[in-house]
Amino acid sequence: MITSGAGEFRPCKAWPGTMWRMTETAETRIEVLRFAGCPNGQPALELARRIANEHGDDVEVTDILVAEADVASRRFLGSPSIRVNGRDVDPSARDRTDYHYGCRIYETRAGRAGLPLDAWIKTAIQETL
Description:
This protein is α+β, with helices and mostly antiparallel strands. It has one domain (26-128): Glutaredoxin, CATH 3.40.30. It has 2 helices and 9 strands, in the order E-E-E-E-H-E-E-E-E-E-H. The chain has helices spanning 41-54, 118-128; strands at residues 2-4, 7-11, 19-21, 28-34, 59-65, 81-84, 87-88, 106-108, 111-113. A 4-stranded mixed beta sheet has the order 5-4-6-7. Strands 1-2-3 form a 3-stranded antiparallel beta sheet, with no helix packed on it. It is globular and about 35 Å long.
C-alpha cells in the first residue's frame, strides 16, 4: 500500500504493474455484470450479495447492466459475469478475450452451470485481502 496526498494506493492483482486507489468504502468490490432479462442475472446478484454479507463491510456488490454496444469495453464474457476487483472469478476465464452479448455457461467439476461456484468467488475475495 502507498499513501499520497490523493489517498492510499494498493497494487492491483487484476492488472499486475498497476495500482488502484482505495476508497473510504469497501476495499473489495464484487461486480455482477449482466444484461437486462438474463435468467441468471438476479440469482448471480443474490449469490454475490450473500457472499459479500459473509465478509461484512469490507466487500461491496455492484450491479452492472451491460448494453450490447459495450461488450468489448466491459470485457464482457457473457451474462452473468462476476468479478472481484475487476478480475473474473472463474480461474479458467482470466485470460479470455471472446467477449459476447449472450448467456454465459460455467464449466464446473459437476458439469455446466449458469452461475460460478461459491468457492470461486470466495477464493477471489481472499486473493484481494
